[in-house]
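Appendix B. One record, verbatim.
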Amino acid sequence: MARTVGSSGPKTMEAIRSAGLDLIYEFGYEGMSLRQLAAKVGIQQGSLYNHIRSKQDLLLDLIRDHMEALLESLDTTLVSVESPLDRLRSFVDFHVTYHVKRKREVFVVNSELRSLEPQNYRIATELRGLYERQLIAILQSGVAEGAFEITDVPVAAFGIIGMLSGICAWYDPKGRLDRASLSAIYVEMVLKSVGARKTLSMENAASGRGALSRPERRARRAG
């Protein structure tokens, strides 16, 4: 994406990105105009082209940056986690936390992929595929080790991601469940969905714990 030279360039670009995200979230990609964007940033409409080539360019930039940040954060989360069971727990907790904290970005990415032109759509879906393959690899490792019982790993991965991403449509952080309790509930549901009951029972028996971890028991009581 083109940017102006000078100290104000990056600052103005960040203002454009932030305003663009707000407007797309509120009005949708088709409903948001560059005139609105310029007015929200406080610059002339013609000045936008010193920073972005088009509205389509801005949308791709927002989606690509979101996906790259998501992938980088996931890599950092999983780098020191070894067992498939713990990696799946960490993946679920990460996904829930990230999506709760960055609800606007997630909404724009999920709802406006269809607005990307074919070449840009391929770029975005390739990045999304990298994220999906992270979960697929975790599930495949769990099946190979006998920790999970899954008939079709890709289908299970897509189903899990769909379930987790749906949180953005209904979760209210001001409601009865805090983020940690919500995450614990989803961790329990996902582990059960991949047939991890036997592994959990053996793990808990070895450690002298009950069937659920402390956060999971607390989440169940809250529910």
